[in-house]
Amino acid sequence: MVVGGGIAGVQAALDLTELGYYVYLVEKSAAIGGAMAQLDKTFPTNDCSL
Amino acid sequence: MRPRYIDADKCTACGLCTKYCPRHLVDQYNEGLAVTRPIHIDYAQAVPATYFIDPEACLYLKHGTCQICVCTCQSKAIDFSQKAEEKEIQIGAVIMAPGFGRIPDATLAKYSYGQHPDVMTSLEFERLLCASGPFEGEVKCLSDRRHPKKIAFIQCVGSRDLGCNNGYCSSVCCMYAIKEAMVAKEHDPEVEITIYYMDMRTQGKGFDAAQKKAESMGIRFVRARVADVMPWEKNLKLTYSTLDGTHSFEPFDIVVLSVGLDAPADAKNLGEIAGFALNNYDFCKTETFAPLLTTRPGVMVAGAFQGPKDIPESVTQSSAAAGLVAGLIAKDRGKALVHKTYPKEQKTGKDEEVRIGVFVCHCGINIGSVVDVPAVEQYTEGMEGVVYHAQSLYSCSQDAQEVLKAKIKEHNLNRVVIAACSPRTHEPLFQETLKDAGLNRCLFEMVNIRDHCSWVHANEPAAATQKSKDLVRMGIAKARHIQPLPEQTVPVTPKALVLGGGVAGLTAALTLAEQGFQTTVVEKEATLGGHLQHLSFTLQGDTVSTVLGNLTDTVKKNKKIEVLTNTELTQVNGFVGNFSSVLTTTKGKKATETTLDHGVIIIATGGREHRPELVLGNPVKYSDAIVTQRELEQRLSGKGKNLAPKSVVMVQCAGSRGDDLNYCSKVCCNHAVKNALKIKSLDPASQVVVLYRDMRTYGFAEDAYREAREKGVVFIPYTMDNKPKFKASGKKTSVTFYDPILRDEVTMTPEVLTLSVGIVAEGTEEISKLLKVPVNEDKFFLEAHVKLRPVELPVSGVYVCGLAHSPKPVEEIIVQAQAAAAKASIPLCKGFVSVEPTISCVDKEACIGCGLCESLCPYQSIRIIKDENGKRKAETITASCKGCGICASHCPVFAISMGGFTDEQINAQITAFGAQ
Fold first, then answer.
1. What is the pTM of this model?
2. Cβ contacts (< 8 Å) between B100 and chain A: which residues?
3. ipTM score here?
């Protein structure tokens, strides 16, 4: 079980499924993404955070 | 599980409900700077892409009235009967990743936050900058919507501040302030931006370079403490004091508070429920050498809850935690996993009749309100190859997938064209449906009439409809030529090679072995342990030799790990999953070569101490009186009396940050504080002076920095315009520097002059040539994606960790090694590497063997081989090809084609553009 659906939680859940495990990802809000989804751009690639 | 009051399977995220919902609600996603409705979705790309109803604001759920949304929703997705559910689940391990919390408003109030709308937090400013923000990316004052001319950033708001009980440094604010300032400057080059700071903590990889760029863009950095911010006529008056004690004030239009990362609001609660301990700041309690383990076995932590950190480090910790979990519950691997099955793929021969089905989507009103969808659908009637056409309200909805499957079977379709939204988001969904219908997923072409037509030409419906017809005609022309492409997989040798037997290599090997993978560790020296062998104690008080001894013992005892000392990698052949390496072991004068087959490589070759002979323009001869921090540490942890020198001057950034090396080595400030504290504990009367540019004791190390100052260690900043000068004075060295508080030059002749020298990469260029992986200008390996793939290298199957990636403290090295091992174990546990069908393919007949493609491929995925006649021919390495198309576009004889984008297909598309 991964508690928290921000960038850390999502990455952990993705890696665990790739490693062959069934994962419960628990997020208290209506969408995953956390604080990173609120960011405009990220340094240094200026990639859109979404 | 709280209810959304919307059936996720039915909701198509069309947005009609929000449009008709009569009530306003403050938009939390936009930090309260905009309004939304009780029924909404936070942002268009939210996952799940399902709207939800805020029960606290909904008129029906609160007062039993309204229900307008129920009749507006065309897909009947609104379901007020949903109830909160409790679920009990069996799990093997937990990863805690609850993130961080907000700095309380009370802390921000002294800067007039909450009293003046133009004082805002950095997150609010981020929303202002964002195209999806309240003003669509236009930066405006919230008070009167004017464009600001002057913006100030105040650093360390809610960090490094015992006033709000946050003694730590939040580690990310300096860098995000620079980013936001640069973005604001790009929006409006005229705007003047000043950043008020205590120390610029841009210690991350490439961060100092960003600060330099910001300076060159005209962003001003002022080392000062801000006393207060007060409303002043139309503006804000910011009062600050600089190091020399002068007070000044300056007017600004917007003041941005660079707020720190607080512990999550419910941290205590989480700790109690899950049974793990917190540290004194309510972040998760962990140890230096086990950074991701909470105090409860089986519960790991990752991300900002482990301590404030930025995105790449959070991503690294998450992968590392996943790797640890995979080792912990290795026996349960594969259990409970659901593997999807597909019907047998029907054969589509080259000469078979082309039967195209065209589906044009309304996307609710998203496309349908602008583009005349029925006209576009009708337009395809009679086109060559088109045997069926239809329109759908939402072609992505679940029932539309069923219709699509049924129509494929009914009309025996062997090509599908969908004119709807973006393939970036929806192509995988439709391809999945094709597979479910027994078609190869590449027999699919998507036409984007939403982004390219209804969105960009929202005010010209006739032109948008005409353009839709053109695009659909072109899509059909291409579809006539598309061919099924094979789903390829390449088998993997389930073994790993780890280069380097330092803490990074050993940790990586252990993380792999605990998951059950055979691992070979190659160390060029005679002993394991790397640089950790030269360290004695940590800032947190660990005894390094004990920890390292345990680690090497565990590695040596592990049957899955083979350790080869005095050994170097001399040759590598192959590609991801199928490497074959030559390892050369030197014993005395005798060198033996062994060949090893393995599936992945982890580079953990480390770095070494930089020993500059010129420091800040002063020639340096190392002796007992001039030492590096490492040498001082050795002296301090020795045996006997008088270990602590009576007086020490430490010079930070000796040879770093533009002095000799261009970067910050991240560890030297902590090292200086660690040694200074040790001296003070051995002899409180010792005099320790630290000359620094920015003290970068980020994260919880700030506590140690504060402690050092409290214990009488003197910290004095210097600038590159006024560098300290060294002068030999007998056996000792005098140091002359400018003291900004005394406003005068001071000369000291310490017993020991200690240089905080940086870390340089070692041997990365040789490995870069062997493995064809890139290094950056500072000779450290360049990761595949700085933010999101921080331990992978651009060449598939090659991973990096430790000092070979960039300088960093041991805690971060351990995490990175665990993450690299976790990533490397993905192909090992799968047993195969799957290959995207859209990769390059060489026509061997046409190829002239010029080798241009090989030299250009950024992923080393195309190579020149000799064919049976001894002629040079190019060959794609399917396992690592990323399908970028560089080779195909450069081939002088058009011998390379890209699956799904052949010249024939593209030419057909272009020809169809000209035809009416």
1. 0.89
2. 35
3. 0.94
